[in-house]
Design a protein that fits this description.
heterodimer, A: 253 residues, alpha/beta, Rossmann fold, 33% helix, B: mainly alpha, MetI-like fold, 11 helices
Amino acid sequence: MRNVSASYDSKNLILKNVSMNVKRGTNYAIVGASGSGKSTLLKLMNGMMIPSSGVVLYNYQKPDLKNKEYKKSIAKIGYIPQTLGLVKNTSVLENVLIGALPRLSNFKSFFKMFPKEEIEKAHEVLDLVGLDTKSNRKVHMLSGGEKRRVAIARALMQKPDVLLADEIVSELDSVTAREVMDVIKDAQKKFKLTAIMIHHDMTLALEYANRVAVIQEGDKILEIGVDGDQIIDFQTGNLTQEEILEMYNEPEK
Amino acid sequence: MNQKNNLVIGAIIAIVVVMSYDVGVDPIAFVEGLPNLGIVLKEMTEFESEHWGTAFWAMLETIEMAFIGTILGVVISLPISIFAARNISNKYVYGPLRALLAATRTFPSILWAILFVIVVGLGPFAGILAITLYTIGFISKLQYESIEAIDYDPVEATTAIGLSKIQLIRYVIIPESAPHLLSQILYMFDYNVRQTSILGIVGAGGIGFYIINYIKFFEYGKAAVFMLVVLVTVLAIDWASVKIRDRYIMKAQHGQQVKPMKN
């Protein structure tokens, strides 16, 4: 992603000349204040938005939802929006199977003729997120943490290379948030995913990511490297978690 | 109450009076004619009980017609409503389609029944066609409105997964808009039973045929039997649809039954 600017109304730029680079296999976290352009960054990555200037490249392709060629690649990007976007009136299993639809023909999907291995795969990912016993439950009957697990399972069902998640745990209490993050961590190890996750909370980001990017007012990205207990702020050279938290964390609401 | 309100109320009363004079509202005729109503009511209480059987079978035919018409209409409405929804369809498709649907709703089903009697002849089939057409106009409208009102988040999320339009409709839009469908069908069936009860007046089958004929020949006692059967049936259907709603809709959506509000 180089020198990218983006805006929703062609007047006010949300992102101004931002550059970043995510290596394959990294566990990347993006942190920033509300309105700093975090979600926009993710939408640029999977092609839901096109940059007004600059270039976004994913696997040497420009993400663009309207481009038919790119549609094959997008099926490989697991995307979990902040609102999760689950279909509330259908079962957990059916929501997860939506992730497999890009691999299915229109005819087969219309009559819900899923191949046996896809259904097995769905149960496998549901087992991984710990929801296989509730696969027939309607989504609107689930708790907040469980809904997030369904969204994760749906994204994993896409057999993704990359997992994009927008503030997936920010509305949860810290215990449930860590449970959900652990699920993602396990999945990431198992399927060798690159994860790019937006966080509201710097503590969580430092705990789970091995690289953290802080966006400031849409025009600066500061990067922090994390390796086990070693934390390095590439800009200031600060080394301890306390110092970094003090610098970047917003006061709690 | 301020002066402006008084003026508006006064104006409305004046308009009602002028219009009543124009169309010939005559309160004196109503008062003078009241004893006639007494005679009719008195004759109506003299049930001719040998007609219960006929009334029962005529009502059954009416319910059958309403049921077939409702189901056919709903089945046809579903694809139509998708093409008529502004958030899915193209404006060159939904525009004309909506105009056509509005046209089918413009005339009450009894007018359509007259038309279909001309087309397929006297009998219940003409009535079924009329009910079907009216149901299409009505349910399509209710459905495309509920499709337009669905939550946009799942649509956005699944588009980002790369779903095709058909998959989007099948897995997101239909499930999201369906919860209201059952209650719409119940309402429509209820409405159609009442409509079908009068379609017999134009010879399109059902219990209305008997009612209108007996009234024409001043046999109020016989007509009353048939009218009573209609009344009981409509009440029964109303009661049953409340039960079905409670059982399947309220429970499915809120996980509980409707309780009276406590203050």
